[in-house]
TrEMBL record:
Record's keyword terms, sorted: Membrane, Transmembrane, Transmembrane helix
Protein name (record): Uncharacterized protein
Membrane-traversing stretches: 27-46, 58-76, 83-101, 113-135
Domain of life: Bacteria
C-alpha cells in the first residue's frame, strides 16, 4: 500500500460512525426545537433594560477569550496542525458574537456608530475570512469513502 492510500474502514467502524452521527443530529434537532419556545418566552418576559454588574469584567473577559482564540488559531496555523480548523471556526463565531453584542448593546447611544463601523469593517470581515478559509481546507480533506446507501 502506498503512503497516500489509506486502509478502508471496517464495516463495524462505519456503522459506529453512522450511529454517532445519527445521535448527534437527533440531539441537535431536539435542542433547536427546544430553543424556539425558550426564545419566545424570553422575548415576552425579559425586561427591555437591565442594570449590569461587572460590565468591565464581562467585556475584558470576553476580549481575553477572543485574544486566546486568535492566538491559538495563529499558533496552530503556523504549526500546520489540523486543530486550526476548530480554532478558526471558534474565533469566527466569537467575532460574530462580539459584533452582535457591541452593536446591540450600543443601540440608542452615540457609540452605536463606532460599534457598527468596527463590526462592518473589522469583526465581520475577519469572521467571514476565517470561515471561508476553513471551508477551503475542508474541500481539500480526504474523507473515507462510505457505501452509497442512505444513512439513517
Amino acid at each position: 500500500m502506498s503512503e497516500t492510500e489509506a486502509e478502508a474502514p471496517s464495516p463495524q467502524l462505519l456503522e459506529h460512525i453512522r450511529r454517532q452521527r445519527r445521535h448527534t443530529l437527533e440531539l441537535l434537532t431536539v435542542c433547536a426545537v427546544g430553543l424556539v419556545p425558550w426564545t419566545i418566552l424570553l422575548a415576552f418576559t425579559l425586561p427591555s433594560g437591565y442594570t449590569v454588574r461587572q460590565w468591565r469584567t464581562t467585556w475584558v473577559g470576553f476580549d481575553v477569550l477572543l485574544l486566546l482564540a486568535m492566538a491559538a488559531t495563529a499558533l496552530l496555523g503556523w504549526r500546520r496542525h489540523r486543530g486550526v480548523v476548530v480554532a478558526a471556526v471558534s474565533t469566527g463565531a466569537l467575532l460574530v458574537c462580539d459584533a452582535w453584542f457591541d452593536v446591540s448593546l450600543a443601540l440608542g447611544t452615540p457609540d452605536v456608530w463606532w460599534s457598527a463601523a468596527l463590526a462592518v469593517c473589522v469583526e465581520l470581515p475577519l469572521a467571514c475570512f476565517l470561515i471561508h478559509r476553513v471551508l477551503g481546507m475542508l474541500k481539500l480533506a480526504q474523507w473515507p469513502s462510505a457505501p452509497q446507501e442512505r444513512v439513517r
